[in-house]
Design brief:
single chain, alpha/beta, Rossmann fold, Cytochrome-c3 Hydrogenase, Chain A, domain 2, 3 domains, two-stranded antiparallel ribbon, globular, binds ligand FSX, binds iron/sulfur cluster, binds FE3-S4 cluster
């Protein structure tokens, strides 16, 4: 074991990586054992149009040894910004890795790929990003797009998109590309994906946009610690006002959490509790979402994806069809039991009513929802 960190720390990072893709911590322990036996997954990492924030977030852990540990967990066989070598030397390292690790390595793509004018706007080692991506993907065991740029074009694809920037899935049409959007995404999701592929030869369950379901199935809004303020109609109206200082909901300041799928509210950055946009008082800009980030102005409000209470609450309003005699009989039996629960139900109904009022106030400019609720 490396002197910079303990075995316990090593296993802990593996367990966190497993949790980030929805696996049990026992998988983390299995990975730790495999890694200790010397089975490090090979990674070839390509950089295109980006800010390198994705790589930076991988390195900027709060505990210096953790970043070292992450680099020790994988065999980084090609990475333009982290390699000391450059020019012909680094290109030779790429060729060697492509040959020796063919079919086994994970290709990590960071940055958007410009497609206009035959891709001339981004070239590395004399090859365009399009060529380089296609060539490396052909030999890769798995392809992962890290960050919004590589997942769907990101900031480089914002209007008027002069370079025709797009994501890896669009260039590699027909191939499975695991997408980890975010500007930047949480590095543990990458680590989990890579370790799962290296150990079991499988990929995490993905949604229709290629994102691991474990990290992207829910909206920020569903797990946000400010959510109780949203439900109660307590909103910051301006940066620095009383409500903002009290940590109230940022919806009116343009928070895109209700339309953004990511797990930032559950897995903060750099292992620092509260280190994520909403945690430090800034509205979520929807950096993971192709239809939100760099498309909808930062301070504009968005439609709420699920205006109903979270799924762990009982339904408040049931849709009713026409009543048949059988239904009436069953309803009679259920009715007795329901009477006992009527007090609880009344609370839910009143909560629903409050929420509707909050909504009406949010949508109607100039109205104070909190004041409205008290009326
Ligand atoms: Fe893009 Fe990665 Fe945003 Fe930056 O490089 S996802 S611009 S944080 O970092 O690709
Ligand atoms: Fe949190 Fe934003 Fe939802 Fe408010 S609108 S609860 S700040 S995610
Ligand atoms: Fe991005 Fe919003 Fe998370 S801006 S980092 S998805 S809170």
């Amino acid at each position: 074991m490396n002197a910079d960190y303990s075995r316990r720390e090593f296993v802990k990072v593996c367990a966190l990586a497993a949790a980030s893709i929805g696996l049990a911590p026992t998988h983390g322990r299995a990975w730790a054992a495999a890694l200790e036996a010397g089975k490090k997954p090979s990674i070839i990492w390509l950089h295109f149009q980006e800010c390198t924030g994705c790589t930076e977030s991988l390195l900027r852990t709060s505990h210096p040894s953790v970043s070292k540990l992450i680099l020790d967990l994988v065999s980084l066989d090609y990475h333009e910004t982290l390699f000391a070598a450059s020019g012909a030397q680094i290109e030779a390292a790429l060729e060697t890795a492509l040959e020796e690790q063919a079919g086994k390595f994970v290709l990590v793509v960071e940055g958007a790929i410009p497609t206009k004018e035959n891709g001339i706007y981004c070239q590395v080692g004399g090859r365009t990003a399009v060529d380089s991506l296609k060539r490396c993907a052909e030999k890769a065991g798995a392809v992962v797009a890290i960050g919004s740029c590589a997942s769907w074009g990101g900031v480089a694809s914002a209007e008027p998109n002069p370079t025709g920037a797009t994501g890896a899935p669009q260039v590699l049409e027909g191939r499975t590309v695991v997408c980890l959007p975010g500007c930047p995404p949480n590095p543990y999701i990458l680590l989990g994906t890579v370790l799962q592929f290296a150990t079991f030869g499988t990929l995490p369950k993905l949604d229709d946009k290629g994102r691991p379901l474990s990290a992207y199935a829910r909206t920020i809004h569903e797990d946000c610690p400010r959510r109780p303020h949203f439900d109660a109609g307590r909103f910051a109206g301006q940066f620095g006002d009383e409500d903002h200082r009290l940590g109230h909901c940022l919806y009116k300041l343009g928070c895109k959490g209700p339309a953004t799928h990511a797990n930032c509210s559950l897995a903060s950055f750099c292992e620092v509790p509260g280190a994520w946009p909403v945690g430090v008082g800034h509205p979520c800009i929807g950096c993971t979402e192709a239809t939100v980030a760099f498309r909808i102005p930062v301070f504009d409000t968005v439609e709420i994806e699920n205006p109903t209470p979270p799924a762990n609450y009982p339904p408040i309003v049931e849709h009713r069809g026409s009543i048949s005699p059988v239904t009436t009989g069953v309803a009679g039996i259920i009715g007795g039991a329901a009477l006992g629960a009527s007090a609880v139900m009344a609370k839910w109904v009143s909560r629903e009513h409050r929420m509707e009022k909050t909504w009406a106030a949010v949508k109607k400019e100039g109205k104070d929802p909190e004041k409205d609720q008290k009326s």
